[in-house]
Design a protein that fits this description.
Elements lengths: L1 E4 L14 H9 L3 E5 L10 H7 L2 E3 L1 H5 L3 E3 L6 H6 L5 E4 L8 H8 L3 E4 L14 H20 L7 E3 L2 E3 L3 E5 L3 H12 L3 E5 L6 H6 L3 E2 L20 H16 L3 E4 L14 H6 L5 E4 L16 E4 L2 E4 L9 H19 E4 L2 E4 L6 H6 L7
Parallel strand pairs: 1-2, 1-4, 2-3, 4-5, 5-6, 9-10, 9-12, 10-11, 12-13, 13-15
Antiparallel strand pairs: 7-8, 14-15, 16-17
Helix pairs in contact: 1-2, 1-11, 6-7, 6-11
């Protein structure tokens, strides 16, 4: 069975869907790994390393024509056209809306397994690429904020005087938010955090941060550990109560997302006006509209004296580790996708396992 790993072509994407370490594991299980030449260069993995691990270097067409194609981002129409009828595609498929790409895959009987649909259950944790990449985003968001903030994050005492610690607020305590809290604490910031799900309070405290407690009249806990959208009344009350807390922050890291919905507005223009000159907002929800309406997607801008960071692909800023985590997530998923019979890999029925069943994108599900 052939596994293809093409080079990612989306602008700014530096990750690769497999690494030499994982290729070695796959080759030992009987897979033939076909890697497009140069696929790992942007992530600092050389062709020679891949060859030594057991991969065969091929052109783009050969990598995309494999039985199982591994990608980071959703393919474009040209890539789908090069794929084999009935192939399996594994990656972030971005399935919130039906489009020509999904329809083209279904027309060729390609079976996409969307990593963002892997359920958040105990036995699927090692396959949860959404979490592994969000972890990196939370870390990198704090590093970006620290580099743009014109002051120290920790308390600093010197012969020339002392500097107070920066007040850093994290909005949204999911995987990215928790990592942002932990990173900011390690750097010495005075960290506060808020989430509409009451169960996150204990997690905030466990990392040494201070929870922001608001009474908005309803819980934001949704299915599968995700947040759900609040009522309009609760949203208005939340914004009003948050305003005073947020305006005191030197750095805001916003991570609040609702699956397949626009990001909730938590940091209003009025709050930005009240923030201190030189404060920084890193908006991890920029891809879906932003938690602050002043955020500009993929731009770093200064508005009202506040620096707003709208990067949408933080894992691509750390491509080596991001690729290593991602590749391992896929390798673990392949363990339940494929059985080895008489030394040869054979695809299992995706409907017989709750993980592959949930990840499989079907025409009727759109």
């Amino acid at each position: 069975m052939k596994i293809g790993v093409p080079r990612e072509t989306r602008p700014g994407e530096t990750r690769v869907a497999s690494t030499p370490d994982v290729v070695k594991q796959l080759a030992s299980k009987g897979f033939s790994v076909l890697l497009e030449k140069g696929a790992g260069e942007a992530a600092h993995f050389t062709d020679a390393e891949f060859e030594q691990a057991g991969a065969t270097l091929v052109d783009r067409a050969a990598a995309l024509a494999a039985d199982i194609v591994l990608k980071v981002r959703k393919p474009d129409l040209d890539e789908v056209a090069m794929m084999t009828d009935g192939a399996v595609l594994v990656g972030f498929i971005e399935t919130c809306e039906e489009d020509d790409i999904l329809r083209a895959m279904f027309d060729k009987n390609i079976r996409p397994l969307a990593l963002e649909r892997v359920p958040r259950i105990s036995r699927a944790q090692s396959m949860d690429a959404l979490s592994s990449q969000s972890n990196i985003a939370g870390y990198r968001a704090v590093i970006e904020a620290a580099s743009l903030f014109g002051r120290f994050l920790p308390l600093m005492m010197t012969s020339a005087g002392s500097a107070k610690p920066a007040r850093l607020v994290v909005l949204g305590v999911g995987v990215a938010g928790l990592q942002a809290i932990a990173t900011a604490r390690r750097l010495g910031a005075d960290v506060y955090a808020y989430d509409i799900r009451p169960e996150t309070r204990e997690q905030i405290l466990s990392l040494g941060a201070k929870p922001i407690d608001l009474e908005i009249g309803e819980s934001g806990s949704g299915e599968g550990g995700y947040a759900k959208e609040l009522s309009e009344e609760a949203k208005a009350k939340q914004q009003q109560l948050l305003a005073d807390e947020l305006s005191k922050a030197h750095i805001l890291i916003t991570t609040a997302l609702i699956p397949c919905r626009p990001a909730p507005v938590l940091v209003t223009e009025e709050v930005v006006k009240r923030m201190r000159e030189g404060s920084v907002i890193v908006d991890l929800a920029a891809e879906t509209g932003g938690n602050c309406p002043l955020t500009e997607k993929d731009q770093v801008v200064n508005k009202k004296g506040v620096i707003l960071v709208g990067h949408t692909n933080y894992p691509a800023m750390m491509p080596s580790d991001a690729s290593a985590f991602y590749a391992k997530n896929i390798a673990n998923l392949l363990d339940i996708m494929v059985a080895v019979e008489e030394g040869k890999p054979v695809l299992n029925d995706f409907e017989l396992d709750e993980i592959t069943q949930a990840a499989l994108v079907r025409p009727e599900s759109k």
